[in-house]
Specification:
By secondary structure, the protein is of the alpha+beta class. It is built from six helices and 20 strands. The chain has three domains: 187 residues, Lysozyme (Orthogonal Bundle); 74 residues; 59 residues, Roll (SH3 type barrels), CATH 2.30.30. The strands form seven sheets. The chain has a four-stranded antiparallel β-sheet, with no helix packed on it. Belongs to the glycosyl hydrolase 73 family.
Amino acid sequence: MKKSFLKHAAVLGLAGVMGLGVATTALGQFNEPGIVHADYSAQGFLDQIWPSAQQVATDNGLYPSVMIAQAMLESNYGNSKLAAAPNYNLFGIKGDYWGAYVAYQTQEWRTDHYETIVQNFKKYPNMYDSIMDNAFKLRNGISWQPTRYSGAWIENTNNYQDATAWLTGRYATAPDYNTKLNNLIAKYDLTQFDPQVSNESGVVTVTSNGSSTYNMYAGPMSSNGDWLGNGTAWQYDKKVTLYNGQTWYRLGTNQWMNGSNLSVGDSASQAPSGTGIVKVKSAAALYSNAGSGKTGRTLDKNTEWRYFETQDVNGTTWYNLGGDQWVSGGQVTVE
């Protein structure tokens, strides 16, 4: 994945020599890679990969813009020998893919200079598998450091620039890796393929039999354990539209709900009267009634929730968070 590929090593992989796997590097003379022949223009390569990259990246909680820029940079728009058939390695990922690999000389950044070394790179059956494998790597890291690339995940960033900055020095050794990626993203308007985030605000009403909220709108999502009842109304402050047309609404900190379970009002002015926001001071228990009926569910510290009604019970104010969901004023602060 590091710049640049200089020569194709005339090396037969160990798997081929020992009969332990698939030998993918043919015997022959050193070549002068870089470019096989320019099968792709920049736009042609973009047109080829963006549908798969958009779907795979979004489903894994990654920025499609970054994924596409990586492929452009690492493969020279699909024209490097490593990226071309029969290798299809768009990202310069080292190792082997189910035993298949190809050996190349490459340059690695060493503190203050580049050093040329021979390394094995994965060989894929097609471009899609290369894109999938890159997403798996970014989501799962390496065996001894599974969160190595977590700073590039959508849920841990504010924008794609945060992701490219995190990858520099971790995914690639080149010290200007993020600058190169950012330039490509800007030049080819790659953010058009990212989830489209709007700061639109308003009120949504649960239309299904009830629905859970989730910690994120893309990638490996998990339920917060918060069940919002049918007919309850909630304020939202962000809306996200995904590549497949799904819409998600943010109802609070790390509280997202799929728009298929909601009806949407016209504006924030439709918020029910007497509502407000409470913030959990520490893990707060939920009750089915004001002052009684502990449900066994809790709200995480520092999460914010809209309330729709208050009741005073023995001098303590209780806040209704929708349906049969109450929290004690002793465990929250009013924002």
